[in-house]
Specification:
By secondary structure, the protein is of the alpha+beta class. The protein has a single domain (58-264), classed as Alpha-Beta Complex (Fumarylacetoacetate hydrolase, domain 2), CATH 3.90.850. 27% of the residues lie in helices and 28% in strands. Strands 1, 2, 3, 4, 5, 6, 9 and 10 form an 8-stranded mixed sheet that branches. The chain has a 4-stranded antiparallel sheet with strand order 8-7-11-12, with no helix packed on it. A hairpin with a 2-residue loop joins strand 7 and strand 8. It starts with 5 loop residues before the first helix and ends with a strand. The model has no long low-confidence stretch (mean pLDDT 94). It binds hexanedioic acid and magnesium ion. The site of magnesium ion has 7 residues, from strand 1, strand 3 and strand 9.
């Protein structure tokens, strides 16, 4: 396949779109196209976002993925990546989460930052903290569009928008009530399944400090000639391995900084 032509990238984005909307897993793109690299994969990701925008969806958040050692080991992948999240992907956790229409959904505990001023250069951690006005607990629901999803390559995951499916953002805390960005690393995160603590981690598992995921997103964006705009959420990445969802499961994230959040899967 000729590399990086817009037409091919649109075709591959549509293949991932169809896999998602029909809940039918596909062969990882990299198996068919071994030359697929991260640059082309990000182009495919953005083609997929254009398809969503054509349907009226709006980009309202970004995610950093593979930011913890636990996640990288779980997936056998080595570098952090970003994904793009729309308003339609935000899940209203007042209602049960319907597993129908998903392929192999998993949930993972995260922390999210709300950006109040755009980032036009790579910020220091202090500047990143200043540019965010809210910090919140979050849960990401992943649903890779690939068969045998443990064995895909990094470009495959990037093209598939970091396996993103849905996300929940809990009640935020004002950033100016958090005295020092460094203290975010000490937040304790408990991920409970059916009320049983299943994974526990300090938020330092997320990029050393979840705020550093914001800096990493800015670096990735600026290296691609993009800027992170104001009025978006950034999900910083998971603190623990993801948990496979089953019908009837009660998923809760408890932390030492925020009110608990969670959902019931049906
Ligand atoms: O959010 C993430 O850490 C991306 C993980 C991609 C792999 C997966 O599907 O679990
Ligand atoms: Mg995640």
């Amino acid at each position: 396949m000729p590399k990086n032509t817009g037409r091919e990238n649109q075709t591959l984005a549509k293949r991932l779109w169809d896999a998602r909307t029909t809940a039918k897993a596909i062969t990882p793109l990299g198996k068919e196209f071994p030359s697929l690299d991260a640059a082309q994969a990000y182009d495919i990701l953005w083609e997929g976002i254009r398809l969503r925008e054509d349907q009226g969806e709006q980009v309202v958040a970004y995610k950093m993925g593979l930011t913890s050692r636990a996640k990288r080991e779980q997936m056998n992948l080595k570098d952090p990546i970003y994904g793009v999240l729309t308003d339609k992907m935000e899940y209203d956790y007042e209602h049960p989460f319907d597993l129908r229409g998903h392929i192999h959904p998993k949930a993972e505990p995260e922390i999210a930052f709300h950006v109040s001023r755009s980032f036009t250069s790579v910020p220091t951690p202090e500047e990143a903290f200043e540019n965010c006005d809210l910090v919140a607990p979050a849960i990401e629901i992943l649903d890779s569009r690939y068969e045998g999803f443990k064995y895909f390559s990094l470009p495959d995951v990037i093209a598939d928008n970091g396996s993103s499916s849905s996300y929940l953002i809990g009640e935020p805390t004002r950033r100016d009530l958090i005295p020092d960005w460094r203290s975010l690393a000490e937040v304790k995160m408990d991920f409970l399944i059916d009320g049983t603590p299943t994974h526990h981690a300090l938020a330092s598992e997320i990029s050393g400090n979840p705020l550093l995921s914001v800096v990493a997103l800015c670096e990735l964006f600026l290296s691609q000639g993009r800027t992170v705009p104001a009025n978006v959420w950034i999900l910083a990445g998971a603190a623990t391995p993801a948990v496979a969802l089953k019908s009837g499961m009660e998923v809760t994230l408890k932390t030492t900084l925020f009110s608990p959040i969670g959902f019931h899967a049906k």
